Each structure stands twice: as C-alpha cells, then as structure tokens.
C-alpha cells in the first residue's frame, strides 16, 4: 500500500476494526505497521475499547496514539447525524492529516467518501498485508503460540509462507 508520493500509507483505525483485530490476533498490528504503514488510533477511540488497559498497551502492539486537534474535537462535538463523536474524530483526523481510515462501519465509510477521505475495510487491509508478504510465520518475533485465539497464518492461505 503506497500513498500518492510512493511512500507507505498512514492509517487510522476506528473502534470496530480495532476491536476485531484485538480479539483475534494482536500480532497483526505489528505486521501491518511493518509491511503497510504506520497505524494510528485517536485517543478518544481508546475510551471505547475495553480490551486495552492503557495507552502503553497500544504502543507495545504496534499502534501509535494520536491526540485530535482542538478544532477537530470541537467540530466532532458539534456534528449531528449518523456518526459517533469518536467516528467523527477518526474521519476529521484522517481528512486533516491525509490518513486512510480503516473501518467496517457503513456510515463512516459513506461519510468518508463524501468528505474525500480514503478508506479501507479491515478484511481488505489483511488482503493487502498478505500481498505485501506479511503472512509468513515468525514475522512477528515477539509472538508466541497461545498468545491469542488466532495465529497470524490463519488470516491467510495455509499453503503460503
């Protein structure tokens, strides 16, 4: 995945994809960061995530926490409609900083498209990871079998790697 300048994409995750990945295999965050681009999560989104004890946990698994700009927080608070405050923060941060929004939320996808924000769904992100070579065993050195419900290779064709 490359941005318009040929560099790696910068991605910002919404709560739904973040929770899905947290509940499957946390190693995937490091793989995405290594093979596809920097992964951010906005600090207000963390408030929605019960699976994370503190921000340090996010850093350990390969996510970077970003604070929203004051203007974006105010705009998110003023917006009414189909999106939550946290979804608005994700969208507005992506728009301001040129990030790609990683989401499976239909309403967020529709609003991102209206606002000219690039999006990618969670499963599509995993497919891009596979295409980039991030599917081999041992790619996540700190990963130990039994650390999670799903091993990284279960995301991909078992005949690869």
Describe the structure.
The protein contains eight helices and five strands. The protein has helices at residues 15-22, 27-35, 43-46, 55-60, 70-78, 85-97, 106-115, 122-131; strands at 9-13, 37-42, 64-66, 100-102, 119-120. A five-stranded parallel sheet has the order 3-2-1-4-5, with helices on both faces. α5 crosses α6. The two termini are 20 Å apart. 38% of the residues are buried.
In short:
Helix content is 43%, strand content 12%. With 161 residues, it is an alpha/beta fold.
Record the strand order, biggest sheet: 3-2-1-4-5
Cα-to-Cα separation, first versus last residue? 20 Å
Note the total helix count: 8
So, CATH architecture?
Answer: 3-Layer(aba) Sandwich
Please report the total strand number as a whole number. 5
Strand content: 5-15%
User: Can you identify the CATH class?
Assistant: Alpha Beta
Can you tell me the CATH topology?
Answer: Rossmann fold
Mean pLDDT across the residues is 81
> Structural class of the secondary elements?
alpha/beta
CATH homology superfamily name: 5'-nuclease
Number of domains: 1
Computed Rg:
16 Å
Order of helices and strands: EHHEHHEHHEHEH
- The parts where pLDDT drops under 50 for at least 5 residues are 1-6, 143-161
Largest sheet: 5 strands, parallel
Give the helix/strand layout.
Elements: E1 9-13, H1 15-22, H2 27-35, E2 37-42, H3 43-46, H4 55-60, E3 64-66, H5 70-78, H6 85-97, E4 100-102, H7 106-115, E5 119-120, H8 122-131
Parallel strand pairs: 1-2, 1-4, 2-3, 4-5
Helix pairs in contact: 5-6, 6-7
